[in-house]
């Protein structure tokens, strides 16, 4: 445990935000005293009563951490105290659901009592998603200005408890929370994960499981890639064969599947309960074989191609010159917009290699206003930058570090003209890239992406010539040509997903691989306790 001890004694170097200097010094002094006390004997493991998880051993790194004072200990008498708001009660019930199975304590959620875990919505400089956590002998208080902030604070509190808290059977405890204060707000408003449910279909329960894992790291956007050559996954009443026929295939010839509208609403509801907004993607005009196979009229030659179960890209296109194409787009966008409380609708636009460039531009000029007509804002893959992005549109960059100079310049120019960017560089943020040559799953067209490579870049300075204000955030896509169950999703997403989450949430000044890898190692026992699979990367000092 030498790494653990070193990290505890060496106070975190970086503090940020609004904490007064005297408070920082005081906290520092207390930590040094506490560390001294702990290191007199054998080094106790973090998460035991003698050594609570250090207050800064959290992913994403909080904006400001001031450790100090006595720890709080959750006991069978602990209450979860909420203010009178429905939102605080909801966050309290969620916390209770996490804590009750492993602690075995009743943990009533109540508006009454004095000490305990307190959740309150109040004013304060915490914005839509930030929070403050105060921990001391008499309790832990989470304060936020908005419900998402309380929820994110609850995720921090989870990570401050021993990993066994994540188990679903009663554990011996004890359940200490280190003393001190965290003040935390996110760097970016878009912190996303994309799941490709087209190449392989994933059930509502599998998607919910992934949503719960995204919530652990304060992600707030779930982008669902709902259509591609290999399968159409969402029921559209006005074009029913899209789902019933176009959804009946997947890579490798499996049964495929699709979401009914009730299924989809349930995913959206569940995501919202975890403060994630769902962004539906209908990829157009390429990646459309499943639609073209379902309706012969959508094809320029009037002949429906067969369903496709391979993994090639770039061979399909909607027929840009036919009016029925725009009837189709209007109907699909209208029905999906009606299922979408969120602001955005993703129209794809990547790898349209079978659509002549002029047609691509013409298509995007007709389709973007349809999205606006139904009250949504366009997001597209970054190829949209070459086709007059609508006012307010976002472009999602998925190129590589070292290639695509002309394309990068096009994206930068769009950004300077007001197009917002979500960054998903494939050789950093694509969770389906193999970690190394021995990774049994995934692809490698963007190279191998080990944990450090995935984490070690700065979204704010990534694309040359892009104003920092154009960067709206980051997103980690998970394409599923080679993945067909939750365990496989987890093996590819973890441990890289928390790194992308940290890039989206934490101040740039907290970025430090050596510090991060120690915090990441501490997540392993949590994933074990949750029954999740993950890649035991040799770059991470797992204990
Ligand atoms: C993509 O990877 N084709 C966006």
By helix and strand content, what is the structural category?
Answer: alpha/beta
Name the beta content range. Answer: 15-25%
Q: State the helicity in percent bands.
A: 25-40%
CATH class of the largest domain: Alpha Beta
Strand order of the largest sheet: 10-11-14-15-16-17-18-19
* CATH fold title of the largest domain: TIM Barrel
* Total E-strand runs: 19
The span between the termini is 7 Å
Question: How many helices in DSSP terms?
Answer: 17
CATH architecture of the largest domain: Alpha-Beta Barrel
Question: What is the rounded Rg?
Answer: 24 Å
Specify the biggest β-sheet.
Answer: 8 strands, parallel, barrel
Ligand set: acetamide
What integer is the average pLDDT? 92
User: What's the CATH H-level superfamily name of the largest domain?
Assistant: Glycosidases
Principal-axis shape: globular
How many independent structural domains?
2
Uncertain ranges? 1-41
Describe the structure.
The protein has two domains: 3-10 and 53-184, 2-Layer Sandwich (Chitobiase, domain 2); 190-513, Alpha-Beta Barrel (TIM Barrel), CATH 3.20.20. The strands form four sheets. Strands 10-11-14-15-16-17-18-19 form an eight-stranded parallel beta barrel, surrounded by seven helices. The protein has a seven-stranded mixed sheet with strand order 1-9-6-7-5-3-4. The protein has a two-stranded antiparallel sheet with strand order 2-8. The chain is built from 17 helices and 19 strands. 33% of the residues lie in helices and 16% in strands. Mean pLDDT is 92; it is low at 1-41. With 543 residues, it is α/β, with parallel strands linked by helices. α3 (86-103) packs parallel to α4, α5 packs parallel to α7 and α9 runs parallel beside α10. The radius of gyration is 24 Å and the shape is globular. The structure holds acetamide. Acetamide binds next to loops.
């Amino acid at each position: 445990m030498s790494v653990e001890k070193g990290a505890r004694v060496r106070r975190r170097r970086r503090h940020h935000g609004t904490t007064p200097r005297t408070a920082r010094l005081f906290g520092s002094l207390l930590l040094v005293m506490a560390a001294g006390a702990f290191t007199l004997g054998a080094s106790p493991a973090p998460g035991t009563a003698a050594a609570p998880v250090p207050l800064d051993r959290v992913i994403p790194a909080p904006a400001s951490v001031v450790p100090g004072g006595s720890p709080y200990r959750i006991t069978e008498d602990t209450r979860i105290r909420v203010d009178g708001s429905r939102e605080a009660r909801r966050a309290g019930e969620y916390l209770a659901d996490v804590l009750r199975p492993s602690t075995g304590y009743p943990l009533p959620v109540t508006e009454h009592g004095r000490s305990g875990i307190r959740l309150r919505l109040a004013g304060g400089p915490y914005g839509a998603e930030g929070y403050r956590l105060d921990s001391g002998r008499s309790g832990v208080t989470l304060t936020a200005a908005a419900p998402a902030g309380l929820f994110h604070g609850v995720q921090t509190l989870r990570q401050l408890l021993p990993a066994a808290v994540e188990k679903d059977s009663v554990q011996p405890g004890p359940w200490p929370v280190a003393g001190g204060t965290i003040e935390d707000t996110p760097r970016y408003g878009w912190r996303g994960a994309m799941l490709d449910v087209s190449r392989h279909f994933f059930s509502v329960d599998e998607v919910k499981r992934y949503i719960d894992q995204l919530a652990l790291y304060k992600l707030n956007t779930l982008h669902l890639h709902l259509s591609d050559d290999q399968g159409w996954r969402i029921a559209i009443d006005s074009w029913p064969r899209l789902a019933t026929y176009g959804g009946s295939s997947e890579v490798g010839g499996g049964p495929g599947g699709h979401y009914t509208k009730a299924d989809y609403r349930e995913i959206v509801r569940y995501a919202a309960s975890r403060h994630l907004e769902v962004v539906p993607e209908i990829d157009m005009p390429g990646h459309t074989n499943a639609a073209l196979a379902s309706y012969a009229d959508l094809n320029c030659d009037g002949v429906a191609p067969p369903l496709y179960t391979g993994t090639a890209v770039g061979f399909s296109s909607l027929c840009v010159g036919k009016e029925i194409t725009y009837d189709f787009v209007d109907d699909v966008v209208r029905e999906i917009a009606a299922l979408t409380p969120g602001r955005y609708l993703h129209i794809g636009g990547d790898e349209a290699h079978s659509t002549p460039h002029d047609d691509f531009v013409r298509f995007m000029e007709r389709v973007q206003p349809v999205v606006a007509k139904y009250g949504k804002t366009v997001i597209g893959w970054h190829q949209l930058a070459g086709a007059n992005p609508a006012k307010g549109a976002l472009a999602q960059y998925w190129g590589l570090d070292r290639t695509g100079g002309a394309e990068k310049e096009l994206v930068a120019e769009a950004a300077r003209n007001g197009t917002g960017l979500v960054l998903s560089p494939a050789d950093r943020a694509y969770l389906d890239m193999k970690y190394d040559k021995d990774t049994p799953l995934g692809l490698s067209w963007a190279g191998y992406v080990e944990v450090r490579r995935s984490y070690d870049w700065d979204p704010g300075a990534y694309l040359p010539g892009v104003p920092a204000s154009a960067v709206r955030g980051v997103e980690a896509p998970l394409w599923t040509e080679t993945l067909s169950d939750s365990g496989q999703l987890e093996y590819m997403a973890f441990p890289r997903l928390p790194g992308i989450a940290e890039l989206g949430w934490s101040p740039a000044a907290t970025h430090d691989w050596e510090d991060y890898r120690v915090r990441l190692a501490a997540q392993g026992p949590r994933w074990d306790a949750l029954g999740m699979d993950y890649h035991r990367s040799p770059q991470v000092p797992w204990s």
